[in-house]
Amino acid sequence: MSDQKKTTDAKDESELLGLRDEIDRIDGDILQLISQRAKCAERVAEVKLKADPEHAVFYRPEREAQVLNRIMAANPGPLANEDMARLFREIMSACLAHEKPIEVAYLGPEGTFTQQATKKHFGQWVKSRPMPAIDEVFREVEAGAVQYGVVPIENSTEGVVNHTLDTFITSNIHICGEVELRIHQHLMAGPNTKRDKITRIYSHQQSLAQCRKWLDAHMPHAERIAVNSNAEAAKRVQGEWNSAAIAGELASELYDLDIIESNVEDSPDNSTRFLIIGREEVGPSGDDKTSLVVSMRNEPGALYNLLKPFKEFGVDMTRLESRPSLTGNWTYVFFIDFVGHTSEENVQKTLASLKQTAADVKVLGSYPKGVI
Amino acid sequence: MSDQKKTTDAKDESELLGLRDEIDRIDGDILQLISQRAKCAERVAEVKLKADPEHAVFYRPEREAQVLNRIMAANPGPLANEDMARLFREIMSACLAHEKPIEVAYLGPEGTFTQQATKKHFGQWVKSRPMPAIDEVFREVEAGAVQYGVVPIENSTEGVVNHTLDTFITSNIHICGEVELRIHQHLMAGPNTKRDKITRIYSHQQSLAQCRKWLDAHMPHAERIAVNSNAEAAKRVQGEWNSAAIAGELASELYDLDIIESNVEDSPDNSTRFLIIGREEVGPSGDDKTSLVVSMRNEPGALYNLLKPFKEFGVDMTRLESRPSLTGNWTYVFFIDFVGHTSEENVQKTLASLKQTAADVKVLGSYPKGVI
């Protein structure tokens, strides 16, 4: 018996050694290929710089999206498509930084979700700079101090980021891309709170709804109290020894609460959406979205007139958001996202038709759909 | 002339298309190889799990260090060794996470340098959990709630992190690795401060020294005032319209200062060192360091007796740090780092000799030298 065990161990050991050798061989091949790729990127930069030393652009959002989409389509496994795309994002980021690192301004401070989104979209080699306010991100991009900016636009728990929307109305910036981050919810309480003594749980109503199953299973007797925001929930819990909050990690740090249980959301689709903004328009990648601001006069049938061209030309609207007009002259302002690129014929027809009925139509940008 | 330009453009265009095709082909090959690598890692996990379902360990610090060192030695360029190693770190991180993500506790909050160090060492796929204090990181590791912990140990500006050293004395945790992060210094001031009006610059003395050349060249007329810490410098500047501070990015956020100029340090070797801690000892990688705590009685020749064995057996000491003994019984406690692994003969001889003269010798761990 002992002998048999030994034989199996020896067999295992030799298989492990063989696998290790194979991994080393594969790594050597990957090393050569990444180096070849970096050499190609070097040559691309040379050609572009020779053609236009002043305005050579090395980073093309549509090209990156195409590469990632192609990689995911051809991915044989076992790694998930998202993981493989993230690896290629880093390979592209390293190759690009070898030519010229991308400089990006984002809504700071450091350590926020917007910084995470910046790295997710541009890779670890990006040079990112935190800005204290959304308009300052816009300003840095407009002034040419950075190539791109990253701002939050939509949170599945708290809705749209109105300040970002409003800034688009008055700015000449283009949307060049989008990126989503998954946001986790945690149960948190003060350091002296015992889990079995918790009788009240505060959170935003949507967060409570998102964690309902977990709460039913694990805290069935605690009262659930909806408050205005998750940050307010965390703040309230500070003064109460028998209550807990459901909120994001940042709130636990801000209000010095301990995380009792991580990731208590029932479904993992709680996400925040960010936009990449830049000075240049982005060509079609083959899988694009377009964002518009449309002003409509406040008259009967305005919304119907707005929606009609999309239906007529078969353009798929993915978001419609209305905002009070800042000029206050009795118009509505709508933010619209739809599938397609302004270079496509049905999109052009839709826009032409919209322009006939709307007070104003402003294309914020066509850009590749968020890849990972 | 115009015609000639056109021909060049067409030639450039066709070369760019060719390069793009070549990059696509290379990407396809990299995709296949990474997938093969992930399959090998899957098989390694199967074999290990079959042999020991309870204690199978998928992450081996010494093996990772060997892979990275081999990659850097074989790197043909043009990417820098550090960039290539970072890419392979991510490839390993993704393959490992496909089997079982590593869970790591670090000194929080999120967004700190310790989190950056955690991601640098374990890659983006690590599951990391912020802890409010250094001893809690130790406790999580000891309790088995996480596999590894990451704590700061040394800052080239502000010296050693004594709290981490002290925790090692009373803990049974092993050091499994080290990682360095480069820290940048910035010139910062309040939002109403004009750069040409700055007459005073506050910072820690070491930071002022590190930025001396930059200050001589760009702010020759501003008075330099040394204060206790960079954070204090930033705080002082808050109330003064004609002064600036040199400090890290976090200080600018904490005290709402604008960064006037980034990376003003003269040499880029301003770094902070972090330790990876775990429950298991790490085998030799071929390029290792060992950390010790040695207690010596307060008697004549103690320091000489401490140093002698290292010299005798040719062991290269890289750091010697003395701390007051916490037990207060008239002994000195020394923290020592040296090059080598406890499995090496000269190291074993050194330790045996040390044990004859020292009151106590505790090996904190042998671990691979920080690779990137």
CATH class of the largest domain in chain A reads: Mainly Alpha
Largest sheet of chain A: 6 strands, mixed
Q: How many helices of chain A?
A: 12
Question: Could you say how many structural domains of chain A there are in total?
Answer: 3
Which residues of chain A form runs of ≥5 with pLDDT under 50?
1-6
Estimated structural class of chain A: alpha/beta
End-to-end CA span of chain A: 51 Å
Q: Please report the total strand number of chain A as a whole number.
A: 15
- Biggest interface, CB < 8 A: A-B, 72 and 72 residues
CATH superfamily label of the largest domain in chain A: Chorismate mutase
Percent of residues in helices of chain A comes to 40-55%
Within the CATH hierarchy, at the fold level, what is the topology of the largest domain in chain A?
Chorismate Mutase Domain, subunit A
- Strand composition percent of chain A: 25-35%
Mean pLDDT of chain A: 87
Indicate the overall shape of chain A: globular
**Oligomeric status:** homodimer
- Name the helix and strand elements of chain A from N-terminus to C-terminus, one letter apiece: HHHEHEHEEHEEEHHEHEHEEEHEEHE
Structural notes for this entry:
Chains A, B: Pathway: Amino-acid biosynthesis; L-phenylalanine biosynthesis; phenylpyruvate from prephenate: step 1/1; Metabolic intermediate biosynthesis; prephenate biosynthesis; prephenate from chorismate: step 1/1. Chains A, B: The record marks 272 as: Essential for prephenate dehydratase activity. Chains A, B: Residues 291-368 form the ACT domain. Chains A, B: Its main location: cytoplasm. The structure is a homodimer of 372-residue chains. Chain A is an alpha/beta fold and 372 residues long. Chain A is built from 12 helices and 15 strands. Chain A has 3 domains: 2-99, Chorismate Mutase Domain, subunit A (Up-down Bundle); 186-261, D-Maltodextrin-Binding Protein, domain 2; 281-372, ACT domain (Alpha-Beta Plaits). Helices cover 43% and strands 26% of the residues of chain A. In chain A, strands 1, 2, 3, 4, 5 and 11 form a 6-stranded mixed sheet that branches. Chain A has a 5-stranded mixed sheet with strand order 8-7-9-6-10. A 4-stranded antiparallel sheet of chain A has the order 13-14-12-15, sandwiched between helices. In chain A, helix 1 (2-51) crosses helix 3, helix 2 packs antiparallel against helix 3 (81-99) and helix 11 packs antiparallel against helix 12 (345-357). In chain A, 41% of the residues are buried. Mean pLDDT of chain A is 87; it is low at 1-6.
